[in-house]
## 1
Amino acid sequence: MAVELCLLLLLLCGSTISEVQPIYKPPPGTLDFGFVPAKTYDTGAYHEPGPIGILFKIVHSFLYLVQPNSFPQDLIRKLAQQKFGNTQGDYQKAIYYEIGFIVTAALGLLFILLLPLVGLCFCMCRCCDNCGGEMHQRQKKNADCQRSCFATFLFVASLIISVGVLCAYAANQHLTNQVRGAKKLVNSNFKDLKIFLNDTPAQIDYLVGQYNTTKDKALSELNNVGPLLGSRVQEQLGKEVHPALDAALTMAGVKVERAIKAIRETKEALENVSVSVEVLQEGTERLHANLTDVKMHLNNTLGDSACSAAQAASTCNIIRNSLNQLNINANFSGLPGVSAQLAKVNDVLKIDLSSLVQKGYAAFNDTPDLVVNQTRNILSAVPYIKNVLESIGSNITTFTKALPVQKILADLMVSLTQSEAYVQDYFPVVEQYDFYRWLGCLILCCMVVLILVFYYLGLLCGTCGYDKHASPTTRGCISNTGGNFLMAGVGFSFLFSWVLMIVVVLTFVAGGNVEKLVCEPFEDKTLFKVLDTPYLLNQHWKNYLSGILFKNPDINLTFEKVYSDCKENKGIYTSLHLEHMFNIDEFLNISMYTEDVALKIEHIQINLSKIILLDEIGKENLLDFSSSGIEGINFAAYLTEINKSVTKVDLLSFANDLEARADQLPKGALENALKGHANSIRMIHNQQVVPLEQAMKYVKARSTLNQSIRLLKRTSSELMVKVKNVISAVNAAQLLINNNASLVIVQETKKYMDTIVGYFEQYVEWVKESIAMEVAACKPIANVIDTAVDIFLCSYITDSVNTFWFGLGSSSIFLIPAIIFAVKLSKYYRRMDTEDVYDDSVEQW
């Protein structure tokens, strides 16, 4: 039986042996391996920008209008393979893809070139007293309307410029805030990576250690093979044996208890019947004698000569004819006795059917003990099997120590520590340069703010200081100052706008392309598909990642699959397909032990022929119990006599009639004699008939006698059929034990072994699942990628830069209409040197 345990070993490795496959494989008992120790990762690789996110979405929509084309995968692949330009249409495709950026950038360059030139020409023109430079204003009737319109337009343009510069400032500040907070995010990623590296050895040790749980469970069941296997055999045989015994017990329980109750009631009733019949027989015999005596005396009286008289003859004849009614009706003398039935019932009550059935149960319940006694050879093999299991555990431990996991993790930890130190050293440098960037962007915003200050001051002074009654040459100082502020704003607009547009164009081209070529394809994983292009990063390798890791570029390992698996926090073994480096199926394979197990498992022999469910004496007692003997009683004769009246006629009625007819006779001795006979009949009724009728009522009051007899009669017929069925079922169950037990034992033994083997299969599956999903869960790797690309590059930098140029660019563009409206409006605020009267002609300047 040492072999049986070896079988459990063989199946532990997942191997299958067709020769010893069980007929039915029950699900094994569930083992609790606990949870693989794992710490929670701190990094949440998700960035919520807050309120400024609305601006980010607006910028994304604007970029979609500028560049609605899909990601140019083919062009990027050719560019990476240095094949761009080999095909004639490559440049055309690139221009088509970038046409939105090209046109927008061209307009920006045009702005950069023309605005300073226009400003220079405008300045020279005004110096020549043209273009509004002449301090002379021709007054017109709609001057107030024009002034109001110019002021309104300039104010609206200034508001739009203000919104734009606020957006630019918010984006600038947001970028600085995120850069300052990036250190915490980076430290969190390094912490998760360290947890990832430090926890992996402990997780592997935990997996190896749980082999003892499986081994201990298997040895525990092998040490108890007798009771456990015996219970299985008993359970399987019990599918046939228990119904037979249950049927007998049910009969012995419910049906028999009812029958015994009825028999006891019937016994009591029969005893009462026996006594009552004796009383009735004695009473009816005495009544019959008295009635015969009365009839004789009446006949003598009616034979008197007085009855021959004409007046009495008719009455006497009537009385004489009624004398036949003076006789008993119920005759109990002919009823059969019930003493034999009482004796049979007493014998039936002495049979204990329940004990007969319980003996069968006891014999069948001894099955585990029989199996225990006959499986001691298995117990003798347990030490050998234990040694085999211990050797397997040692092999597992040796194999895990032979893996280069510790060395790999140690090298990675060194590299990680160096990288962390490098990043920490350069964080102050990054923050310093970010300060310079923030300061430069702030200066650009201040340029726009300076222009806005002049415009707002000009509108404030001009509007507040304007006197509509004053002529152009007599305008107040405040109004004149407002006009000068407006012209100062125009001057600074020409000085700063082209500088602002240079920054806008550069950041627009850079930030817009990063958003379209990096951030968007990273979000929908198109970028990974490009990276997974065969022979892209290395012209000799089909799959770059597997070439780097395994030196085998033919293994299908893609960036997208690794990233997706790590994103789902799967184990590094599954994500990187490390089965190509070391295969855990081979590590868990112990098929070397299976052949011996397959041969020795067939030698189990258990004999259950000693189990006797119901012996011959028990069967005879069952048959005896089924016959109570009550069915031999002549129930009809009893019921017929019981239902009869005591006499054929009611003696009181007869006596009354006799006395009434005596009154019809002439007064004399005949009348008195008949009345005397009537009194004698009444006396007989009161002294003999009434007690007999009460005795009859006593019998009728025992109506349960009738019910008990009928119940016993019906139960007796049912018992006969049921006893025969029970005996047949018990015989079939006994035949199953005697003839088929060996097959059941073999089958149950295989099932038992499969259950034990199932523990090892559970262990193997649990190890595989844990390694695939829990051990070295690579979520930190995906978090690092998400942090670097999605959060830091795209959310922190690109979105902020794009929002900055969007706000600064909109402000720069609206400087043009602001210049026009400011120049026009300043003419109405500044103090003129000369003036004209009203002139409806159009002013030329």
## 2
Amino acid sequence: TNTSTNSTNQEWFLNGESVSTTADLEWNFDETGSYELCLESSDGYCEETFCQVIFVNDDTTENSCDYVSFMTMGNVDIDENIFFVRKYYDRYVLVGLSGNDISIITLDGNGQIIDNQTIEFLNNVNKSIRGTTIDGDFLLLCGSRKNISGAEDNTYSLKFDLINKKLEWLKIGSNSGLNLSYLSEIIVIPNESYYVMMGQTQPNNGPGYGCDALWIKVDKETGDLIDYINFNLGSCESFVEGLLASNGFIYGIGRFNAFGGGQNGFRPAIMKLDLSGNEIWTRLYLKNITTDDARIYNNSFLEENNNFYIFGQGDNNGISTADVSLHFEKINLDGDVEWIKEYDIVGLTGEFGVKLLSSPDGFYFLTRSTVLPNPGNSFITKVDKNGEFLWSKKIELQENVFLNDFFLDENGIVAVGGVSVSQNGNNKDFIFLRLDLEANPIDQSCVTTSSVQTNFNAILDSANTLVSVDEFKNGFTIQDFSANVILNELSKNSSCEIVCQDTCSNGVLLHSVPDALIANSSFTCLNGEILIELLICNSDSIPLPSATPITIYDNDPTSEVALILGTFYTSQIIQPFDCVNEEILIEIQNLNEVYIVVNDNGSIQSPFNLSEDFPSTAIVECGYTNNIGLLLLDFEEEPLLNLGPNLTLCANEVITLDAGAGFLSYLWSDGFTERIHTIFNEGIHWVEVKTNCGQLLRDSINIQFSEETLINLPDTLYFCENEIKSIGVSGFETYQWLPSEIVSCNDCSETIISTTVDTVIYLTASYETGCYSS
């Protein structure tokens, strides 16, 4: 888009070539690479040019890997666990513990980590997170700090600004006598200046007896305590969840203990309160509070169509924490029971009802085991709107999974918690997991689910006991506390070898294979051979094996028939996102360039297509177009071979030729093998030398004798008895005839020969320049 001002003329240039004179430019890039795009704008007087480099990449995947269907996060040797997940606009907010500190993790809509804020307070003090909610752009948390034995030891609550990433307030329970105290729920009251919180305290003196249910009201802006009420039924009572119902009243669910009983008196309870915390009524369910022994809990509930749906677990006939079953009730806003259903997951001991969700066609339960040997087992169960059982599925990973929360979004089920390799849950990592609406994993490479048998029946004779509780105040107080908010890095870990489900263009799972490439290449000359130095990298998530083949070609094997100069092998494993140096010693003659292909054994006939014909080995990659490299062979520093121009010599002249220094070997046309050679005869003489880089060079010289310096005498003269003959040559300055006793003149150009015996006649003639012939 052209954002120039006051411009009347414009012209677009792509890599220096004019492509348009329109105000804005639309361009389709057909090939990958880098492009320089320039815009020249003018108003008729002034002219400006703006240029920008554009990188065009090839998308080798069929799907985007941004969408996270399974992820574990954490740091080494720190016990981490997510307890809640909340949708915040198009993001996810995950709340958990990292060691003793609170972690607030923000993910984008695809599940990618945006940031991780750690809230540090009460260092080295264990904490629990029992409740969280979002009020506009603020996150509210509550829970407890724990004593050295791990027991709940007073309360805390805080308000965190999700936009500015800062703490608004932090409050700590300040009454040291309130052991086993916690806050488990924060309720936003629309158009009011306060929050309602619910939980438990344990005064060690009257009028309460042991733990008591707690209701408090705090100021929204400051967190200061406005009011509080304790509720006592005679032994130990607690709120675990609460909500503001459609009728304008607050309801709290939990476990109440009937009239001073032991664990055999634990009953699932509902209390109705007004906004000032005054009890309207309290009811206990499932088992008679005076005649039956049972240990039953309510854990999660929601309102739908003026009815409550409540989920929990317990032993209906005793006080076991192992021999338990799940229960699910439909109860109207007046506390009347519509129906109660019971479920028992076969083979599972110690079921714990974690969370209840509603969908248009039914309800989902999140269940976890709390008893060894399978405390890491997590299950999702679906029932219809009448509580009729549909299915149960076990969530299975390579590690033990501890799921603590889940919810439904437009893509299915999102679940969070912790994963651990140990059955007792030590050294857990955060987990973020997506499932479809049938609880099937989206990423089946890391997560599997399996159907489990679940026994189901309806409870027809449930108790519904109206009880009266005592209301009192036990001196509950809170105080301001400071904390550090730190932005911490959070490492994404993989609990399996597949990082994501995306596929490459060749169908291979992305990041499930190595990616070999030649990052750099150079050469040096060594004793007649070329030492090629390669920087070979692996740019993906799986190691590249040692002995990966590297093949060298005399020209481009992707465009023409190429001769294989040699195949070599890597000397070591190349780890993910790492590079190694490899050296190849090879003899290459009379080439200016070579092509090098990594992960190629040379078995595919050239020319070949790297995208369609590869791999040639069993080492699979996401793509192969980056496996080829070009090495230019520049021999400018090599010595030159030059015998000089052709020569014309005097007859019988001797010449010495020098092939030059710096070569490894010499071979002359007559078989001579030294650098300097003396030539006695005319003709074409050549020499072939070998350079330090192994190149064979040849040069030749044509040596001819001058015709003018040649003496042309007859080969033989025949004499008769007493006969004399005249013989001579011309064109020379001096003459010398031998033997002198048979010639008439030994220094003349012409002489008379007289002899009676066979004789050899010699003539030597010369010029003033010293050139001579004989």
## 3
Amino acid sequence: MMKLTKIKIIHFGKLSNLTFSLPSKEINVFFGQNEAGKSTTVAFIKQILFGFYLRSSKSPFFEEYEPLAAVSPMGGSLFFELDGSEFELERLWAKGDKSKKGTLTVKKDGHIVPESLFFDQIQNIDGSFYADSFIFNQDTLAQIMKLTENDLVEQIYYLGAAKSTEFLNLRDKFDKEAGTLFKKLGKKPEVNQLLAKRIDELNDLSQKQAEFANYKFLENDLNKQRSEYIKSQNEYKTNNEKLIVAKELEQKLVSYKKYQALKNSLTEVKFSEADFNSCQNLVVEKKNLLANLEEDNSQLKNLQADDFDQEQAEKLLLERNSFVDWQNQLEYKKYELDKRKKQREQLISLYPFLRNLEEVDIDQLQISAKKISSPTDTTKSKIMPWIVGLAVVGTISLIINPILALFLFVLTGYLGFKESKRKAVAKQREARLASFVKEYGFNPNNQELNLVIEKLNKLKEIELDISNFTIDVEKLQSKLQNYIVNLGKYLKRPLALEEVNEALNNLELTVRQRSILVANKASLVTNIENLKNKIEMISKQINGLLLKAEVKSWDEYLKLREAYFANKEQENRLNALAENFKDSHEKLHEIMLDEEKWQQKKDALKKQNHQLELYLAKLNQNAAEIKVKMENFANSDEIERQKQELETTNTQLNTATSKYLAYILASRIITRALDIASGERLPKMLAASQEYFTLLTNGNYQAINFGKTIKVTNRTGKKIEIKYLSRATKEQLYFALKLAFAKQIQDDINLPILIDDSFVNFDHGRTENIIKLLEQLAQESQIIIFTARKSLANALTKHVLTFEG
């Protein structure tokens, strides 16, 4: 079973850099206030699956979610779990991309795979099918008003037989052809016309020749019908004009009620803007004087304490230049130290064998290298060719001159001894060379020894510089640390290196201020006394103004001012509302005195008009019937001709009826074949939708009836059209149909069901019923709910997802 496990939003609409890990494989709940991003997240899931910017296609909700900020790319990823594997669908789009749908990348367990590997799992449905079948929101509720049985059949068969669309088209073609031949209540189709014609012709034959008195009787009756129609039509028109006026008054009544409520809540507030401004200026002045008084008292207190060590402070300030100099030296030494380390690494990278020679004595290295060096190459024998040659000549001489042959054999033996001794020396040299390579890491025969000695000397020179600079850095760091510690002890707080400069600036400022304060101590005392007197005088003035305004404190005065301006704002709103009904004030007042009575009058007018509509329709029908009767009177001379016409009509009717029955039979055969191919989903889906609707309405509605439009049957057996249901009941029907459809196709398509704030019109009882149904369906299908109702979110799950942070 496919489950959505994680949502990763990079940039989409107003949402950026958000990742949601879904805690449950059954029901997950997103909670957020209006404009938090709930509907944006629903659209994100749909568009990552099926593409961005589908504005060229019809869609039940807003599709354009290009990021509001100038950020890129648009898009993100969805993570699905299926049969132990993880699918990641990443769709991205940036400005300049030619494809408005974005670039889709599908990964399975971290590896890129063809898109078909995922979409074959969901029958390659498109975005419209997903929105129609799996997304619930307020916008798509309107679909229930237009939904027909044909729509449900087409969706069901889509997942049944191969080429079901072609079969449906063929079935619809047969139905259309049959519809052009006969309709139950139709008049224009051929069979309907032939039947009507046959009936008319039979009536003509049975009536024979009507008497003129009958015709006059019908004519008089027709005139009476017309007179009654004109009278009723005028009455209907008068009532309709009254209803239009009543509707306008009803719209104005809302504003009038608000006006009366605001007027009743309006209270008089005594407030003087001039006095308030005077008091505000005095409060600000007092606040500033109090701040000055507090500062002067603080300075005086500091002078009286007088525990400031002026001498130590000046000593620390004198050493400031040395501190700065130490910092500069430290930076230079660190730079040089880093430079030498880089030189060392560069040298070793060019000559790796130096890494093994850092601790080697150069003189010892030279001695070891001389021991294995040789001016001549003893690896190749120069004697062996002579030995071979002498052996060959001696063999030949043994026949010619034995004495010469003996001499040659002796000489060959001597040369063989010399060759053995050369090989032994060469073997010793090879052993010493192997030992040298093992100890020093390079072959002196392959590497120029002078170059090695030169680079080794350079390395040791760099190592010496590194050692010296390291010692200098440590000494400078020690000096700096000692100075920082002494400064911290004086300031009685620990300091970091970057805080020293600011601390010294503050210390220098304090030294200057202390010098000034000591000199001005007498004037400071006088100033404090003057500030106290001035504050006392201003306080009296403030208290006088507060007393005048009948408040106890400045905070109460501020609240009084807020109440005054709120009152003014209400007066402005009252004036604005009054403009909406200035010409209807008296009439609205009269309605408010007895609104129920006025509503009853309006309802009576509506009822009367409805009855008049039915009556006018009946009069129209009666007049039409009279006209037909009058036109059907035939002369006696026409009877024979009409018999022939009736025979012709019968022949035409038989032919047309045969064609009609053939089309109907072919259509039903195709429908039954598709029923079987789709696994009998349609009957199951209809049964499930009725079960769900009965559960959601607590048994108030027992059945759903499909036809050109959908009707429901209540407890009493009455069939009711959708337009007469309450909004909440329509939504319950909407949920029952779509959830039943989703359940029937879950074996082929098991995508998550998305519910976006679709319970806003549900009362407590309806909410409990839908929760029970969702918990039941969540056993087999994943459900994700987006809601602004905190109580609903908590009722569904303990792990509520939010859009914060």
## 4
Amino acid sequence: MSQLGLAAAASKALPLLPNRQRSSAGTTFSSSSLSRPLNRRKSRTRSLRDGGDGVSDAKKHSQSVRQGLAGIIDLPSEAPSEVDISHGSEDPRGPTDSYQMNGIINETHNGRHASVSKVVEFCAALGGKTPIHSILVANNGMAAAKFMRSVRTWANDTFGSEKAIQLIAMATPEDMRINAEHIRIADQFVEVPGGTNNNNYANVQLIVEMAQKLGVSAVWPGWGHASENPELPDVLTAKGIVFLGPPASSMNALGDKVGSALIAQAAGVPTLAWSGSHVEVPLECCLDAIPEEMYRKACVTTTEEAVASCQVVGYPAMIKASWGGGGKGIRKVHNDDEVRALFKQVQGEVPGSPIFVMRLASQSRHLEVQLLCDQYGNVAALHSRDCSVQRRHQKIIEEGPVTVAPRETVKALEQAARRLAKAVGYVPANIGGPLPITKPLDPPDRPVAYIPENTCDPRAAICGVDDSQGKWLGGMFDKDSFVETFEGWAKTVVTGRAKLGGIPVGVIAVETQTMMQIIPADPGQLDSHERSVPRAGQVWFPDSATKTAQALLDFNREGLPLFILANWRGFSGGQRDLFEGILQAGSTIVENLRTYNQPAFVYIPMAGELRGGAWVVVDSKINPDRIECYAERTAKGNVLEPQGLIEIKFRSEELQDCMGRLDPELINLKAKLQDVNHGNGSLPDIEGIRKSIEARTKQLLPLYTQIAIRFAELHDTSLRMAAKGVIKKVVDWEESRSFFYKRLRRRIAEDVLAKEIRQIVGDKFTHQLAMELIKEWYLASQATTGSTGWDDDDAFVAWKDSPENYKGHIQKLRAQKVSHSLSDLADSSSDLQAFSQGLSTLLDKMDPSQRAKFVQEVKKVLD
């Protein structure tokens, strides 16, 4: 519990909310309002029209209380609440019913702000970034009450006040009707819809909206309800709110029965004999996504495969659906005949789920281990419990600690659980932390073996493809690392996450084939029916542009470097697309690229092209500090295609003028025509020469058109793009993987050092200035000078990995910062008078060795 308020990233402080009652969801209540009947006397606000001042008597009373307390305790200035429901309406409490809530008077309680400052100091002392001072408890019943009591006890022991961390509960009408314990313990609560948990505690959208609305630092989902929904931690993390629980990756890893069993085997955790016991997968291959081939080997797909697997693991056995739960998709079998009879039932109960077979442990006990993890990789086993008393596979009684097994067995069980949790990274997500770079299983310097023929298949370019002989042809990114997102939506754009040499990245690519969009029937129209509409590849439509913008937003929030395999011809221009917001979606792409804070690479792949408005959207000038543009040698990049360019720049008149300047025969014919005109030649001679000129022009026009197109094609190359400065470099397709791996490592190293410099100097010191300073340090420490030495990516990464190369420069920056702060202190006489007190506080925070060293340094300066 001590990790609760330490080093988690969080949002701003929770504004204290008024104690007003509403009937709609999302209303803030006082926890004390349930323990006493509401005062039904009404105090109407006098409007300005009636001669009043527009302020209710109750509010005047509130203001007078604040004024009376101002001289006793330090009250903050009164600010409008986030949930303001008065609007000149009735106050259900009446003017004499003062707002009280567990010691809080009119939105403030004694010592609350002092406690918040203690939490901030406690967090800073342990190296945390932002303290957790308010938590939305997205659970009810025993889980919520136990959590709140634990927080109260820990806060009181740590800060001397059980109210140091504010707890906000969610309450359904059913909870309020029984005066639930967790509501009475909480500082505040919000009313949410009743009914099934899909309406409240399991509603991810509602939880996120409530957390944002209340401005809480963190959300605790407990167990059950939404706590095992991987969408909740992802959305909360994207909103800058701490999720007190495991990240989505861990939920996905252990949420699948087959996948979790394979991961357990790879982590050295004992498992029962099952259909996947023979499958050996390295742990590194399991963490992102278990290889599909290995996954299939662990499953059974037919009745006879299930029979054969049961014979291997032994009877009695269990036929289980991987997606099942709560007793669904599970059958016990004792012989082959029962397998043949019950296998189809398992398939029918959980349609589409993978199925596996596991040995049934007869006369066994159901023992569980409870784990507590933090964001630093520490995993503690908080004892164990016996859950053997069950009805229809559902636990009824949990007894702890375990007493039915020898202590050595329980210890081994706890150690195995800790190994499994560590293997899948079962810790809270760390916002703003370093990228989780893993050891690459796919060599970063291998060539890209997939070669596009006519068009570039985006998925093959990303993760490779098997050829006709079954040989794997590698793509740009690590094998089996690509996980596609939004797969069924806007299929003309491919988005997902992959790894490049073990470094996680976000990827956006373009579908080159024509895709079919399914438009479902409108249930409000009887004559409506489902339609299939073709969507051309390499074109942004409203949905695919929105998908691109959303992917950029998600990758940026996750801190992922970005790769865009740009292969667009432009935006769709139909009237319907304009009505559906194609221009707005395009501008959102530009805005999300402008604000992208991670390294971003735009690469026009082999057989790719970038045309029209697509250039405007992904141009590196949108965000020159972050975006770098590259192109493959065969890529095309003019705004217009050569044929279109000729239609504008070399029309028929320009081509005829060019013929007249270059073709000797036309030159002679035009000279003869001029001589005949000046010599008053006969009309038949003039007409004959003109016909000859027309015939020659008609004969040369196709040839000169081809020459003009070829001339335009020479300007439509990657070399020309590099010469014009619209791309940074031409990168051959086969070498693109190794090049971008080195470049990505370089950019990440630059970003880490630049962030450290800006943290010292301040945000006014731009990223560009930080990079200029880094370049100055690097070149000063190297034998080479100029751009040649600066462009060596491997050399820079090696230089960055040795802190002694720049440690002295960093220390000088820190000294300059302190000097400026002290100089500013000397300019203010009042601040200078308080300097001794501040120095005393600083010395108190130091340990004895630091204090002695500091005093010696000060003496040197004074002497």
